[in-house]
Please model this.
Amino acid sequence: MTRSDTLKKNDKRYHHGDLRDALLEAIRMLVERDGADNFKISEACRIAGVTTAAPYKHFRDRDDILRAVALAGMQRFGKRMSDASQEHDPGMPKRIEALGQAYLDFAEAEPGIFRMMFGLSEHHAGDPELEETGKATTDLLESVVAEHLNLPPESTEVRLRSYALWCFVHGHCFLRMDGKFAEKYGQLEETEILAAVGKAMMRV
Amino acid sequence: MTRSDTLKKNDKRYHHGDLRDALLEAIRMLVERDGADNFKISEACRIAGVTTAAPYKHFRDRDDILRAVALAGMQRFGKRMSDASQEHDPGMPKRIEALGQAYLDFAEAEPGIFRMMFGLSEHHAGDPELEETGKATTDLLESVVAEHLNLPPESTEVRLRSYALWCFVHGHCFLRMDGKFAEKYGQLEETEILAAVGKAMMRV
DNA sequence: AATTTGAAGTTAGCTTGCCTAACTTAGGTC
DNA sequence: GACCTAAGTTAGGCAAGCTAACTTCAAATT
Model:
């Protein structure tokens, strides 16, 4: 089945057959175009070729849809991060770099989903599945930093440097998405900044 | 005139007299409670004691309201930052710290407005007044970093370190607002992290 | 002082979106 | 082949954003 088939069934069968996934895919696109708070469920319905009441057979309400889209995003994100780390041998500084680069790449490729992953409203606070999925990625970061510093992953030193690194990369992602980087620091070389900060923060 | 008078006129005069400001104040509150994309203009009208058509005598549409609220926030923010820097003499390391702390404090006190200041949609991209107001604050940061490093503010070195510092503090603000800090790094001492990173990044 | 005028309100109403209730379709099971 | 149930549909309520046309009233003009 091709992707366009997933979105819209051309034949006029009463049952779509794959509506849940089709909606998620349509909404993923719409979140990129309009943002998590501005996309219209009704537009996703038009794309999928169903009436506006259909989604409620698969999702409780808008919040439930957001949750599903964010979760899928976090899983994609986690896989990218994991793949990136495995491109280099344990202990190599390149491994940290690759992790940071994967983070930046994802934020650039899917800014809407990226925002959403972090900015879900309080309705989703404490959701175990979301937290679990997020934790897997921070655990990965800590293990890589720990290897690099040759310290146990639970040590305060490792946790502190991991978090500091996270803050930095995360902050750059947001400033870049929001145009603040281009607005004033566009002529700085992105890689140069990253390298300089990485070194400064990982200096033993 | 007391603040509650600003919000709602008890007397039943036909003209409110101060509706624009009353709306901005009401919406500031609602943005904190519901977020920039979820607050209802109609609710602000109820608070201000006018009908739902009244705002359109003062603002073009929702985007125009958002712009005004964000601009007011950026001005408040700029003043706080400026005040903070002036609490210490030029060249003192405390001056950088104070700036970072003011940034964090604002994000903690007004997370809704803080988000909004950075996350305004593309409709406002390139707005000269907004950009100007933001630039004043980054200029301030650069001048303080320049003093500290004893280098010209336009030097690449200063700009690079300023931006790196900005990324870090900005990232921490967002991760903290979004619960990621508390979720996993809550036991780390915030001040300890800040101090460690500040030192690492400003090391000559 | 009376008149005029325009900014700042109001009422009424259109449009769109979310969501629910009640109904229909059709694929899989006995 | 009858029946059940998941997954669609239609119809409609409700709330919000925004506009057009009308009203009020304070201040400027005469």
The two ends of chain A are 53 Å apart (CA to CA). Chain A touches chain B through 42 residues (CB under 8 Å). Residues 1-5 of chain A have pLDDT under 50 and may be disordered. Residues 13-17, 19, 50-51, 53-54, 57-58 of chain A lie near DNA strand D (CB under 10 Å from a C1').
